Amino acid sequence: MFVTMAVDHLLTSFILLLICNTGFSAEISVFVKTGDSVQLDIQTQELPEFDLLSWRNDKSVIIVRYIHESREVKLHSSYKDRVDFNDETFSLTLKNMQKTDTGFYTARTSGESENNIVTYRVSVIDAVDAPVLTVNSHWSSSDSCTVNFTCRAHDLMINSSYQNNRCSPEEVTSQINTLILDCSEESIICNHSNTVSWKIDRINITQLCGDLCVCEDGRFCSTGYTDTRTTRV
Question: Which of 7, 32, 54, 87 is surrounded by the fewest CB atoms within 10 Å?
Fold first, then answer.
């Protein structure tokens, strides 16, 4: 199913890595959800000989210094409660990431020569809002059902119709968010996603076409019926 494929793709690329290697240097793009942690690895098992290894950001802050001979680790005062440094793998874990943490992070060694080992371009973005499915109109007979509806999230919107147990899958995108519409014989599904999160809204077609009517304002209404049409994740 279209939505399932999209969700699977989203999960497998939850942290997207775009790697371009040149000698010891590699530049990697990483997307992380606001409030989450991210681990930055050096991406090589063959470091040059070094006296000092450091991780620094593009604001000229040296987040951590590791002195090879003494195995001493020094953390910058502004990061002491927000980072973990692994003195075996030399990876850096940044915690509770905020949008102000967006930027470049570089691992560098120094000794007889200086080498940039890896650079990460970290983008911190918010989780998506839950989408909303709204029924605009519907009518049914003993052998058919037509539902006109709107799938909406943030600044994205899809208007469509469900007829004869199907609708046309549709997708619209903004700079970082995607809105996907899909249908099955049982449900209309609206999926809102970006590289770090996804949420859905769902309408049960069986209940809608079999038992429900739609009021003038688009709400579901049926005497004595409890509306269980929507599932948000």
Answer: 87
